Records
---
Amino acid sequence: MWAIDLLIGAMTGILSGFGIGGGTLLILWLTLFAGMNQLQAGGVNLAYFLCSGTPALFTHIKNKLVEKNAFLFCTLTGVPACIFASIAAANIDVSWLRRGFGVLLLFVGFKELFGKQTKTEQTKA
Amino acid sequence: MKDKAKYLITGALGGLANGFFGSGGGLFLVPLFTKWIKMDERKAFASSVAVILPLSLISAVVYFIKDSLNLGGAWPYLVGGVLGGIISGFVFKKVPVNLLRRIFAVLIIYGGIRAVFNF
């Protein structure tokens, strides 16, 4: 039902706006409840982020919040890494892709739940 | 370790997550920026968007070339995402972000278990 899809998209979009992994939750929704496989859900999330992240980036640049060195040095390694991984993703069994995603989720989830909280978390504007 | 070296490692990890899983910003870059590089949270989030957006564009192009991109029926999510992004700007100061992060953690652990065991 398109109205529910729209609502899910809006809710995960709001979370993304708070710096919480909205895209991650969208992928979970797509794979667990919308019948998509991991690769298709990842592709939808890429398109989704291009839609929701582009306007946000302009605001961040305008507010001078983008750390220039972070951008330069992360993209330097990030671009070849994402080209390699997106080609590889098309060529490996999608069930292994899903398991890999699961391992990553468990790792981040437990760190988030039991790790130290950053001091600035409640003061961000 | 110097910040530049940390950025190089963070970028490579974010790029791998982006290519393999179509994600990686909120999941990977923001925690590494704040907890490892000790960046201010607002800058961390803004910078993660700046990094992951071009990576997502490149990954999306590769997905398209490789015939992995299948957006049939996905338009409500895309429209919802744009609306949600706009709404979040207005309610940002009124939400308990720490509580949301904990709920998020529980949800992804649940999703992680289901994904690892493929059910």
---
Amino acid sequence: MTAVAPETRAAVAAEHDVPIPYMQRTRDYYLVLGYDPYRWAHFVEVPFTSLRTPLSGARVALITTAAPLQPGAGDQGPGAPYNASAKFYQVYSAPTESVPDLRISHVAYDRLHTSAADINAYFPLARLREAAAAGRFGALAPRFHGAPTNRSHRATLQTDAPELLRRCREDAVDAVVLVPS
Amino acid sequence: MCHQTVSLVARRLEADGIATVIMGCAKDIVEHCGVPRFLFSDFPLGNSAGRPFDAESQAQTLELALRLLESAPGARTTMQSPLRWTADAEWKRDYLDLTKLSPEKIAERRQEFDQGKAVARAKREAT
């Protein structure tokens, strides 16, 4: 619960009110289940590129980890249990002019506290369209792209990331908004 | 895995001259990997783009991400959205909470996990 510190009148946060330590919780959880700890990606250097054009003239792309609805692959609806059959293993692209039906039953979202009932909470295409129409940035790229989620860093680094880069280059994008599910 | 995947992809794009921003809910995973720009929403996983059925929250979340694109001074720039999921933080206790798992439940989860992996492997190999 929150309390107020009299000297500042600022609300004091509860001790546990911190970003959830997902790596630690996942490690502890899988140890209890009897599995070896997972080694998360971790690098010394981080690349950085300044936006090469003002945002008002920039072409912006969207990359998602959400999956296109796959008929016959089991329950993918709001609140569906984890569904490995709904996963995908190849980069996909679709027009940003379309209204895609993308789901997230194939990933470990927080099923206790949210239900994935509103696509706009994990796939901001509608909001991006509005921002582009309002002139907040130059233009939305003609396609958005889907990135397969993979336990293997190597699959992402050697196969999927280069393919996503190739498609972004093909569409001559200046900036990319990436949204995990 | 979603947060790690997009982190790896953002790094690749950035190394090739394309500016990126990640909108996400798993702060530790993204920062552990190391990315150029990150708009963190302290929301349950699955709401990286804002609160469900709340266009204003979604627009605000996107706007903060766009501002990061424009103004981050260098790599590993994280901004935390001021939006809160609930007034208190009780929801944060629940994700993979081991105190609620009986031995029977653990066996059940292990079986589910193995089944899920087998299904995923078969699908991956068929792709």
